[in-house]
Write a structure and sequence with these properties.
The protein is globular, with a radius of gyration of 21 Å. The chain is 29% helix and 24% strand. Helix 1 (22-34) runs parallel beside helix 6 and helix 5 runs parallel beside helix 6. The protein is of the alpha/beta class and 429 residues long. It has helices spanning 22-34, 48-59, 94-105, 125-132, 170-179, 198-210, 243-255, 275-282, 315-324, 347-357, 389-395, 420-426, and strands spanning 3-6, 12-17, 38-42, 63-66, 72-75, 85-89, 110-114, 137-140, 149-152, 161-165, 187-192, 216-218, 222-225, 236-238, 257-263, 286-289, 293-297, 308-310, 332-335, 361-364, 368-372, 381-383, 405-408. The chain has a four-stranded mixed beta sheet with strand order 2-15-17-16.
C-alpha cells in the first residue's frame, strides 16, 4: 500500500484557492445535460467523481467539450438522452449515481448502473421506492435495496404525491427534484421523517432555479414542482470553491495559529458547509469572512474550546471537527451524524478506530461520537483511510500537534481534491 509520511508540524499560515465544489459540479453537469441550450461551465472540479459523471453523460450521448483546464461546454438534450441503452460505471460517486438513477428511470431506456464494491454497500432503496411510485421499472442486480441497478423502459405516471424517506441521504430527494421537471407534470414530493443535510437541498433548489425551474417548498416536508416548466441553460455558470474542502484549511488555521485564508467561498456561498466556519468560531477560533473568502486564526489565548454539537446540517465538514477535537481543552461530542454510517465508509467506526491510534479516548453510538484528547498525541500513527478521501484529509491535521503521522493510501483524495497534500504542505510547517 502507498503511504505518505507527514513530518511534525507546528504552524499553519497562507492562502488556498479551493477546487470546485463536488456537489455543485455534478449537479450542474446533469442539469446542463437536461437543459435546452448550451451551458458554459467554469471552474468545474477536476476529480474522480466528476470524471464519472462526465463519462456517463458522454455515454448517454450528451455533447460535452472541454474548453479550458477546468471549463466545459455542455450542449443539452432536452428531448431526452440520445442513447437508450448504456452500461454506466459510476465508481463511488454518490453525487453521480443517485441523480442519474432518477433521471434515467424517467428516460425510457435500458441502463445498467454500477460502481466499486463500496458503492454497492451504500443504500439506494428509498430512492428506488420513490421512483417506483410513479411507475419506474428498476431491478436490483445484487442485494435488495442496494446497487447495482438495471433500469428498463416504463410507463411513467407523474403527478400526485411521491413519498420518500429523508433520514438516510438527502441525495435521494435531490435526485427526485432534479428529475421530475423532465416530465412536465406537476408533482409533489413529501418527505417522511426528518430530512438530513438540509443545506444540500438548498444547493439543489438554487441550481434548479438558475436553470429556470422553481420549486415551491413548504418547510422541509413538502416540495411541489409546478407543471410546464423545463430546464433552460443560464448561459455561463461558475462553480464555487468546495466548502467541505475549505474545512481542513480553516481548521489548520485555528489549530496552527494562522491566518489561513481560503478563496472561492464566502458569505455569499450557496453551500451549507460554510457553516463550518461558525462552528469553529464557537470553539474560540477567530474567523473573518468576505464575499468570496474566509480566514481563520487560532484563539487569542489558550486552546480551542470543547464542544457538544448537532451536525445534522454539515455532516461532511463535521468530520474535520472530530480531528480538531484532539486540540480542544476537554471532551467533545458530535451528535446527529448517523449519515456517516452510509458514506464512502462507515465513518463513525473508521473515525473512532483511527483517533484511538493517536491516543484519544473515543466512544461511539449509532449517531454520535465522543472524543477526549490525550495529553500528548502518540507519534508515528499509521492512519488507514478506507478509500475515503475525507478520512485522509482530516487526519493530516493531526501532524499539527508536532507529531509525525503516516497517511495510508493518500491518493484516495483524488475523489474530490487530487492535489490536497501538495496544497496542505504549502501552508504548514
Amino acid at each position: 500500500m502507498e503511504y505518505l509520511d507527514l513530518s511534525p508540524l507546528h504552524t499553519a499560515q497562507g492562502t488556498v484557492r479551493l477546487p470546485g465544489s463536488k456537489s455543485i459540479s455534478n449537479r450542474t453537469l446533469l442539469l446542463a445535460a437536461l437543459a435546452d441550450g448550451v451551458t458554459e461551465i467554469r471552474d468545474l472540479l477536476a476529480s474522480d467523481d466528476t470524471d464519472r459523471m462526465l463519462d456517463a453523460l458522454r455515454l448517454l450521448g450528451v455533447q460535452i467539450e472541454k474548453t479550458g483546464e477546468r471549463d466545459y461546454r455542455v450542449t443539452g438534450a432536452p428531448q431526452g438522452f440520445a442513447s437508450k441503452d448504456a452500461d454506466l460505471f459510476l465508481g463511488n460517486a454518490g453525487t453521480a449515481f443517485r441523480p442519474l438513477t432518477a433521471a434515467l428511470a424517467l428516460a425510457g431506456g435500458s441502463y445498467k448502473l454500477h460502481g466499486v464494491p463500496r458503492m454497492h454497500e451504500r443504500p439506494i432503496g428509498d430512492l428506488v421506492e420513490g421512483l417506483r411510485q410513479i411507475g419506474a421499472n428498476i431491478e436490483y442486480l445484487g442485494n435488495e435495496g442496494f446497487p447495482p441497478l438495471q433500469i428498463r423502459p416504463a410507463s411513467i405516471r407523474p403527478g400526485g404525491v411521491v413519498h420518500i424517506k429523508g433520514n438516510v441521504s438527502s441525495q435521494f430527494l435531490t435526485a427526485l427534484l432534479m428529475a421530475l421537471p423532465t416530465t412536465g407534470v406537476e408533482t409533489t414530493v413529501e418527505v417522511i421523517g426528518e430530512l438530513i443535510s438540509k443545506p444540500y437541498i438548498e444547493i439543489t433548489l438554487r441550481l434548479m432555479a438558475q436553470f429556470g425551474v422553481q420549486v415551491q417548498r413548504e418547510g422541509w416536508q413538502r416540495f411541489t414542482i409546478p407543471g410546464g416548466q423545463r430546464y433552460v441553460s443560464p448561459g455561463t455558470l461558475f462553480v464555487e470553491g468546495d466548502a467541505s474542502s475549505a474545512s481542513y484549511f480553516l481548521a489548520a488555521g485555528a489549530i496552527g495559529g494562522g491566518p489561513v485564508r481560503v478563496e472561492g467561498v464566502g458569505r455569499n456561498s450557496i453551500q451549507g458547509d460554510v457553516a463550518f466556519a461558525q462552528a469553529l468560531e464557537a470553539l474560540g477560533a477567530r474567523i473573518t469572512m468576505g464575499e468570496n473568502w474566509i480566514e481563520a486564526r487560532a484563539p487569542a489565548a489558550g486552546r480551542l474550546r470543547a464542544f457538544d454539537m448537532d451536525f445534522n446540517h454539515i455532516p461532511d465538514a463535521a468530520m474535520t471537527l472530530a480531528v480538531a477535537a484532539l486540540f480542544c481543552d476537554g471532551p467533545c461530542r458530535l451528535r446527529n451524524i448517523a449519515s456517516w454510517r452510509v458514506k464512502e465508509t462507515d465513518r463513525i467506526s473508521a473515525m473512532a478506530t483511527e483517533l484511538r491510534k493517536l491516543g484519544a479516548a473515543v466512544e461511539e453510538g449509532a449517531d454520535w461520537l465522543g472524543v477526549s484528547a490525550p495529553a500528548q498525541l502518540l507519534p508515528n500513527a499509521a492512519i488507514d483511510t478506507y478509500d475515503d478521501h475525507r478520512m485522509a484529509m482530516c487526519f493530516s491535521l493531526a501532524a499539527l500537534a508536532g507529531v509525525s503521522v503516516r497517511i495510508n493510501d493518500p491518493k484516495c483524495t483524488a475523489k474530490t481534491f487530487p492535489e490536497y497534500f501538495d496544497v496542505f504542505a504549502r501552508v504548514t510547517k
